[in-house]
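Researcher: We plan to redesign the surface later, but first we want a full-length starting point. Tokens attached.
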């Protein structure tokens, strides 16, 4: 992967060394072969040739269910996308990029101060025949540990708490939520967080977000940069329908997949970065 052209030549690329690592303006296609080797024997067990059409604006593959920062930020924030029916009771799981939200007790989707969130433990006023559940909670679990979690939350006499746990279900930190006006609460610097729980008999929580370290080349956002990412990017550049979601926000440009992203990924796989 070292020495392979990784960007389009600019006026700054004047030396022979610089010109050997950029793509001349007249180049319209590239042939790249991706090989997979067995960790046990070192033998090549798979190989695929890709012919890429070089353009200044490779296709952007739409993302769903998350708002993701760029690869240059190091730590990026992913925000929970609710998109639910107002005043509807939560009767389903919400699954997004790296997280899953479940619930216990009485939880409704309620907008507060213009933000759609969750009323936990209390009724919306439209379900008069139901009673509160003293053990109501919203649970946000993560596919892989995260660095920090934040949320906007308020309490209406419901003894609301916002707590973080590790993968072994050990309590890392609990924050007491106070006041009826939504306030931002953040849990960080406590180690690896595997899940957070908002528990209340009359509280509200919204704007749930978590922070993770972004690995260069991890285009499918599974927290590892491997050949699966390289193949997805090559398929996108070749205008082949993708079997998985990819995230242009995690590229060098922050908006599109480019050949430079493939090179960075291959350098990660080869241990050069």
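Model: Full-length starting sequence:
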């Amino acid at each position: 992967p070292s020495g392979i052209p990784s960007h389009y030549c600019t006026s700054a690329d004047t030396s022979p060394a610089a010109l050997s690592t950029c793509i001349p303006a007249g180049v319209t296609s590239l042939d790249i072969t991706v090989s997979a080797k067995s960790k046990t024997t070192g033998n090549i067990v798979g190989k695929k040739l890709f012919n890429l059409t070089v353009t200044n604006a490779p296709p952007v593959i739409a993302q769903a269910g998350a708002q993701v920062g760029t690869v240059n930020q190091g730590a990026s924030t992913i925000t929970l996308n609710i998109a639910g029916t107002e005043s509807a009771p939560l009767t389903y799981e919400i699954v997004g990029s790296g997280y899953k939200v479940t619930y216990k007790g009485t939880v409704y989707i309620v907008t507060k101060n213009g933000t759609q969130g969750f009323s936990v433990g209390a009724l919306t006023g439209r379900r008069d025949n139901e009673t509160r559940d003293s053990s109501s909670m919203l649970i946000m679990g993560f596919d892989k540990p995260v660095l920090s979690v934040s949320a906007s939350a308020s309490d209406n006499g419901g003894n609301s708490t916002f707590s973080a746990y590790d993968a072994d279900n050990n309590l890392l930190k609990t924050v007491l939520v106070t006041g009826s006006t939504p306030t931002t609460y953040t849990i960080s610097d406590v180690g690896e967080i595997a899940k957070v729980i908002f528990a209340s008999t009359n509280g509200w929580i919204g704007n749930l977000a978590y922070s993770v370290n972004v690995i260069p080349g991890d285009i499918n956002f599974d927290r590892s940069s491997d050949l699966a990412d390289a193949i997805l990017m090559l398929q996108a550049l070749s205008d082949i329908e993708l079997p998985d979601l990819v995230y242009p926000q995690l590229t060098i440009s922050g908006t599109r997949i480019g050949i430079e992203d493939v090179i960075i990924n291959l350098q990660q796989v080869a241990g050069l970065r």
